[in-house]
Each structure stands twice: as structure tokens, then as C-alpha cells.
């Protein structure tokens, strides 16, 4: 089995002892089919047990191991070593406070996710006796793609607007709002619009598209946000230019 020596340059930060973050270099022998997460695990197991980072599934499903790899937001479990040459620089996700080493604090994202109410708000309560509120395949396909988000926050690390304007609700949260707005079982769009259809919401997005480029689940948040802009524009036209159409 082919092996090679891999050099990792990892950002280290201990809030108890460090005044600022600094890079530490490691050399580790890795198998050619390994991913960056495997290399980090080898470092932690055999070289430096003090290294801190998050991971769980190793299958690009949980979203835990998001980090900056050579300046690009990636899942460490989905970044193959064979795709990199020279020193691999590994940093915490951009635009988030560092808790320790490669671990960032997701509090801002979680607060914004809560604000958009990413859950079904039913039109009316149904009893168990009434059975399931079923959908057609066409109704499902309207939102299925946008339901695939794994909350990895790579899109936030890639988004220049979030980096410049921290109040921006951001790609993932707004995409999940769009997902529920498109659900035929949901009646909560008006409530979500109070957050989404604002300058801190979809109108802060300048359609750079970086969020969709880095999304490991191919959710395409850039598309979701542009669709929300169109819907919000139609709402405005109905309210101000065609008041009879808004009733």
C-alpha cells in the first residue's frame, strides 16, 4: 500500500496560555488514500495528543469536521491527501471565533438558525385519526434539495458578506427557511419573512456564489437565496403596486 510523508501546518491556539494563535508543523507518514482527517488523527494518536478538532462520522454526513484547508472551507473527511502537494495548511473555519486550535464556536450560526424557524408550522393541527399529511413527489421535489443541509457551516466560512457583515443571517439558515417555505404542509412563511426579507436577510446577499461552490451536500444555497429574493419582490409589488392582489 502506497505511503508518503505528509507535512501539516496546523493553527494552534490555547486560550488559557496563548495571547494569539500560531502555526505548528507536523510530519506524518500517511497512506495515499487517506483524507486530511486521517492525517490529523494520526498526529493526535502518535505525535501530539493535545491537538484539538471536531469530527464524528468520517462520512461527510455529520458536518463536524469543517475547517480551512489551504485557505478553502472543506470537510476534513472529504479532503483527500492525494489532491494536495507540499505543505497542507489547516486552520479553523473562517469568520467564527476560535475556541481552541481548530475548534470554532458555532453560537452565532445557531442563534440565526433559530431565528428563521427551520421547522414545519402547520396550517392546522391534525389528529392521529386524520392520518398523515401526505405530499406528491412533485411537492417533495420543490424543497428536497434544500433539505440536504448538514449544518457544516462551510458556506459561512466562504461567504464574503458574512465576513464583512456579521449581522447577515447567512446562507445555510436562509436556505433552510426557503426549504420550509416551499413545503406544501407549512404555513409559516409570513413569520419567517420578518427575518428573511430584510437587509440582514436575503438582501444582504450579493450572489457571489461561493456558498454553493463549497457545499459538500450540493444544496446550492445561492440558488435558494435568489429564489427568496424573487418571492420577496413579488410580495412588495403586490403590496405597493397591486394592493388588490395581496388580499
Automatic annotation (TrEMBL):
Coiled coil: none
Reaction equation(s) it catalyzes: a quinone + succinate = fumarate + a quinol
Keywords assigned: 2Fe-2S, 3Fe-4S, 4Fe-4S, Iron, Iron-sulfur, Metal-binding, Oxidoreductase, Tricarboxylic acid cycle
Keyword Metal-binding among record annotations: yes
The record's free-text note on cofactor binding: Binds 1 [2Fe-2S] cluster.
Necessary cofactors: [2Fe-2S] cluster; [3Fe-4S] cluster; [4Fe-4S] cluster
InterPro entries: 2Fe-2S_ferredoxin-like_sf, 2Fe-2S_ferredoxin-type, 2Fe2S_fd_BS, 4Fe4S_Fe-S-bd, 4Fe4S_Fe_S_CS, Beta-grasp_dom_sf, Helical_ferredxn, SDH/FRD_Iron-Sulfur
Keyword Hydrolase: no
Membrane spanning residue stretches: none
Pathway in which the depicted protein is active: Carbohydrate metabolism; tricarboxylic acid cycle; fumarate from succinate (bacterial route): step 1/1
The 4Fe-4S ferredoxin-type domain, residue ranges: 139-169
GO biological process, one term: respiratory electron transport chain
Single GO molecular function: succinate dehydrogenase (quinone) activity
Superkingdom as given in the UniProt entry: Bacteria
Enzyme Commission code: 1.3.5.1
PANTHER family cross-referenced by the UniProt entry: SUCCINATE DEHYDROGENASE [UBIQUINONE] IRON-SULFUR SUBUNIT, MITOCHONDRIAL, SUCCINATE DEHYDROGENASE IRON-SULFUR PROTEIN
Similarity-based family: Belongs to the succinate dehydrogenase/fumarate reductase iron-sulfur protein family.
Quaternary structure and interacting proteins, as annotated: Part of an enzyme complex containing three subunits: a flavoprotein (frdA), an iron-sulfur protein (frdB), and diheme cytochrome b (frdC).
Protein name per the record: Succinate dehydrogenase iron-sulfur subunit
Protein's organism: Sulfurisoma sediminicola
Organismal lineage: Bacteria, Pseudomonadati, Pseudomonadota, Betaproteobacteria, Nitrosomonadales
Amino acid at each position: 500500500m502506497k505511503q508518503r510523508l505528509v507535512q501539516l501546518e496546523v493553527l494552534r491556539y490555547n486560550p488559557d496560555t496563548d495571547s494569539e494563535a500560531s502555526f505548528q508543523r507536523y510530519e506524518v507518514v500517511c497512506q495515499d488514500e487517506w483524507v486530511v482527517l486521517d492525517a490529523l488523527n494520526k498526529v493526535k494518536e502518535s505525535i501530539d495528543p493535545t491537538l484539538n478538532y471536531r469530527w464524528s462520522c468520517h462520512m461527510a454526513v455529520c458536518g463536524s469536521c469543517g475547517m480551512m484547508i489551504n485557505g478553502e472551507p472543506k470537510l476534513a473527511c472529504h479532503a483527500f491527501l492525494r489532491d494536495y502537494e507540499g505543505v497542507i495548511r489547516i486552520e479553523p473555519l473562517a469568520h467564527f471565533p476560535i475556541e481552541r486550535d481548530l475548534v470554532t464556536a458555532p453560537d452565532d450560526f445557531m442563534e440565526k438558525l433559530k431565528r428563521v424557524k427551520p421547522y414545519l408550522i402547520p396550517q392546522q393541527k391534525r389528529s392521529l385519526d386524520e392520518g398523515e399529511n401526505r405530499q406528491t413527489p412533485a411537492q417533495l421535489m420543490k424543497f428536497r434539495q434544500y433539505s440536504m443541509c448538514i449544518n457544516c457551516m462551510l458556506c459561512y466560512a466562504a461567504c464574503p458578506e458574512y465576513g464583512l457583515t456579521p449581522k447577515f443571517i447567512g446562507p445555510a439558515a436562509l436556505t433552510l427557511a426557503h426549504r420550509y417555505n416551499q413545503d406544501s404542509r407549512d404555513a409559516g412563511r409570513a413569520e419567517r419573512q420578518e427575518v428573511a426579507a430584510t437587509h440582514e436577510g436575503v438582501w444582504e446577499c450579493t450572489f457571489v456564489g461561493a456558498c454553493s461552490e463549497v457545499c459538500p451536500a450540493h444544496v446550492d444555497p445561492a440558488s435558494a437565496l435568489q429564489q427568496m429574493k424573487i418571492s420577496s419582490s413579488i410580495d412588495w409589488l403586490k403590496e405597493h403596486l397591486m394592493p388588490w392582489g395581496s388580499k
